[in-house]
Design goal:
Blueprint (H helix, E strand, L loop, with lengths): L5 H15 L9 E3 L8 E4 L1 H7 L3 H16 L3 E6 L2 E6 L1 H12 L12 E5 L11 H19 L3 E8 L4 H13 L5 H4 L3 H26 L8 H13 L3 H25 L5 E4 H17 L4 E2 L5 E4 L7 E5 L7 H15 L4 E7 L3 H13 L8 E6 L2 E3 L2 E2 L10 H19 L5 H17 L7 E2 L2 H4 L7 H21 L14 H10 L2 H11 L2 H21 L8 H24 L9
Parallel strand pairs: 5-6, 5-11, 6-7, 11-12, 13-15
Antiparallel strand pairs: 1-2, 2-4, 3-4, 8-9, 9-10, 13-14
């Protein structure tokens, strides 16, 4: 818990510079004070003792006195062995609440870089699936978090619109489509093309099984060979093939756009592999001329990375067609030429870790000094309760289906609690539940997705947080019906344990946000807003928050409530989740 209480942490950090003249401050370890001791927050002194080579008692006394002098009676301290406990006086809680009521509390900008974030980046042979949802939600949320702390963000996707995968869909449609279109059969464009990709795979596997039984080698007119011939014609610029390719890709783009709109995913820039892959090929050929790469007898071009702990990596095939890494080389080079950027973050699954390690090594060998500005943010896979999704086994869930299912579950669960539900509210709740379920888990951890479990008015769900928020806004409306708003009421206010806990957790928000931005981890925000909701509901259940007979205390509590609502809305919006004033 290195992220508590901005004011205390800031003053402690300042004290270390002043008292010990260090050039850099070591990481400070703050925790809530254990229940058996008096205090609100505890600084663990052992790491500092090791760094400063001084006794923990001496360090605790020095830092404690410095903080007391700075906060002038708002705080007391106690030192128990290697722990410095800070005890907040009531006036310190008033100070914290006043700080949070100041608009500057929400000014989180502390740095500014121009950062490009690449995410989603699908192939044009099938619909977006559950894995794309996790990718897109992580990318969109990180973009919003980095914007909030002051960075300029370019959200980009590169669509893999060329290659053998789209040719498979094309050949299946040409042979068996009978001229049907998404409109004629009333199927969404990406699903339509995906249907023919699946048909190709079914036919190809059947052909392979039959040849295997007869012990034959693949025949010239097999559907796979026809797809390869189609690819060659595409690369040679055959106008008829290009026309079909453009038409089928547009069907897919239209489908993608519809899905992205449902998810609230928006890109600043869209790139297409077909416009870039030739650039990568030229860079590889120049690298061969410079001796960075080597060529085998069959004409293929490779890089030898054995000394760096990798292997030899193919960069261009013998027929001079590109591979995935060829495109990524060209894309990275073009982006740094075109955009004045400080960093590129690639949000791509863990299964591509090796690919990006090799890509960065290749670019370094080519002499690009900006290679250190590239970062691969790796995330784990999404699993079903039955296990890993596998397209060939037919258990990949497409994004559109899961979005519709979430709407349906939200509507059903909502009707159990309330008499009626607006369609739009059900959509916001369903989508909020989906997004929260995916983002509450650290990107580096696996997700086992249970749609039913994600929508619950109790437990760690987006629905629970949305419901807490709507309860807060309802309290605010009732307050103005029953009480009057006062301007001056701080004297003689005494906070109890429930109010203190609420103020303490709310004051963490700027630091949680900063930590989330540094670690590129939306789950820190997601778990924080849940803790805020839980703490508020504890306050709600144990205190009378609106009392017309005690307007002063009602005003104070309304300020706490108002800040809580603002923090919940701000945090959830960073996750791409909308809030409802009424539920």
């Amino acid at each position: 818990m290195n992220d508590h209480f901005q004011s205390i942490e800031k003053i402690v950090r300042e004290s270390i510079f002043v008292l010990y003249k260090l050039k850099s401050c070591p990481e400070l370890d703050f925790q809530y004070t254990k229940k058996e001791y008096t205090g609100d927050i505890t600084l663990i002194l052992f790491p500092l003792s090791k760094k400063l080579k001084k006794p923990v008692e001496k360090i605790g006394k020095d830092i404690g006195n410095y903080v007391i002098n700075q906060l002038k009676g708002l705080i007391r301290v106690s030192i128990i062995k290697g722990f410095l406990n800070f005890i907040f006086e009531n006036d310190y809680y008033i100070y914290l609440l006043k700080e949070m009521l100041n608009t500057n509390f929400y000014d989180f900008k502390y740095t500014s870089k121009k950062i490009m974030i690449e995410y989603s980046s699908p192939n044009t042979n099938k619909p977006l699936h559950l894995g794309h949802i996790r990718n897109s939600l992580i990318g969109a949320s990180i973009a919003e978090i980095l914007k909030m702390v002051g960075h300029e963000i370019i959200k980009i996707q590169i669509i893999n619109d060329r290659g053998i995968h789209i040719c498979k869909s094309m050949i299946a449609w040409k042979k068996f489509g009978k001229g049907e279109t998404p409109d004629s059969v009333k199927i969404k464009g990406d699903h339509f093309v995906g249907k023919y990709y699946s048909l190709f795979d079914k036919i190809y596997r059947k052909e392979t099984q039959e040849l295997s039984k007869k012990n034959y080698t693949p025949i010239q007119h097999s559907i796979m060979n026809q797809a390869r011939e189609l690819l060659k014609k595409w690369e040679s610029g055959d106008p008829i093939i290009l026309k079909t390719w453009k038409k089928m890709n547009q069907w897919v783009y239209n489908g993608f756009e519809e899905t992205y709109k449902k998810l609230g995913i928006v890109f600043d820039k869209i790139e297409y592999e077909s416009n870039i892959y030739e650039i990568g090929k030229e860079i590889v050929k120049k690298g061969l001329e410079k001796g960075v790469f080597f060529q085998k007898k069959d004409g293929s071009i490779w890089i030898d990375l054995i000394k760096e702990g990798f292997d030899q990596k193919l960069l261009l095939r013998s027929d001079q067609t590109s591979v995935y890494i060829t495109q990524d080389i060209g894309t990275a080079v073009e982006r740094f030429k075109k955009y004045d950027i400080d960093q590129i973050i690639y949000i791509v699954g863990k299964e591509q870790d090796y690919h990006f390690q090799v890509l960065f090594k290749v670019l370094k060998r080519l002499g690009y000094i900006w290679v250190n500005k590239l970062l691969h943010l790796s995330y784990e896979m999404v699993y079903l309760p039955s296990g890993r999704m596998k397209s060939r086994e037919g258990n990949v869930i497409d994004a559109d289906s899961i979005i519709l299912e979430m709407y349906s579950i939200a509507k059903k669960n909502f009707l159990k609690k309330f008499i009626k539900v607006h369609e739009k509210s059900a959509e916001i709740i369903g989508l909020g539940a989906l997004k929260y379920y995916f983002l509450k888990i650290d990107p580096r951890k696996k997700i086992i997705f249970h749609p039913e479990k994600s929508i619950d008015f109790k437990g760690k769900t987006g629905t629970y947080i949305q419901y807490t928020y709507s309860r807060i806004r309802s309290l605010e409306r009732n307050f103005f019906k029953l009480c009057s708003l006062l301007n001056y009421y701080w004297s003689n206010i005494k906070f109890d344990v429930y109010e203190r806990n609420m103020i303490k957790i709310l004051q963490k928000y700027p630091l949680i946000l900063k930590k989330s931005a540094i670690h590129l981890n939306p789950s820190l925000i997601a778990n924080y807003v849940y803790e805020v909701s839980k703490t508020f509901n504890n306050l709600y259940q144990n205190k009378k928050l609106i009392d017309p007979l005690n307007v002063i205390h009602s005003n104070v509590r309304m300020n706490i409530i108002h800040v809580t609502g603002n923090v919940l809305k701000s945090g959830m919006n960073l996750l791409g989740i909308k809030m409802l004033d009424r539920m």
